[in-house]
Amino acid sequence: MSQVLPCGMVRLLWTFLFRMQDLFHVAPLSPKEAHLAYPLVRMFDPAVTLQNWLAFVRRLARRKPGQGGLMAVRDRRGVMHALFAYAVCQDRRSNACLRITDLIVSRLPGEEVNARVLSGVQELADEFGCREVLIDVPVMPGNAQALSSMEGMAAPSFSPVTITFSNRSLRGDRLETKSA
Q: 20 to 30 A Cα–Cα from 162, which one of 3, 13, 17, 62?
């Protein structure tokens, strides 16, 4: 005998299965909550002390609005799965350019966290009218494999250091990838 699911249950199941990005959200990380991100930072780079991390976050927090900051990708429970710093700068033609640094992404099955990081970067680029996005990739073991699929390049003997995304126009086109 089959059961009919209530409409609310179907909606919940649909949301869970087809809107995985909603499991994660990107928001600024304030100095008050920086200590909550430290376990992720420490897992990625054990040489970073809590004092160094907190000083780094305070430095980023002193930037003027629209010039840069620190973003965190959290799940619905508030657990942090990724962090990145950003700065808005000018390229050689005086166009706004978004630079992503200090990228830390936890290793989870699937691509949801990576996708949410990239969509968060896209949202920042759109917000600040940036024509290019530069992502500085930390040179750590495993990064070449994790990012080579994103760039569509097989790089067995080197790691990318910067990945550049360019927007051909600001008419709402999505950013396209090009190697740097």
A: 62
Tokens at residue 136, please?
């500085």
Cα-based distances in Å from 58 to 23, 33, 48: 28, 11, 15
Helix, strand or coil, per DSSP, at residue 65: coil
pTM for the complete prediction? 0.69
Tokens at residue 135, please? 């992502």
Pairing of strands 132-136, 162-166: antiparallel
Structure tokens belonging to residue 94: 């005086």
For 26-54, write each residue's pLDDT tens digit.
Answer: 999 999 999 999 999 998 889 999 999 99
Lay out the sheet containing 80-90: strands in order across.
Answer: 24-28, 68-75, 80-90, 96-105, 132-136, 162-166, 176-179
Share of the chain above pLDDT 90, in %: 32
Among 177, 141, 135, smallest CA distance to 159 is for 141
22, pLDDT greater than 60: yes
Domain 23-179 annotated CATH 3.40.630.30: yes
Per the listing, tokens 């990145």 go with 84
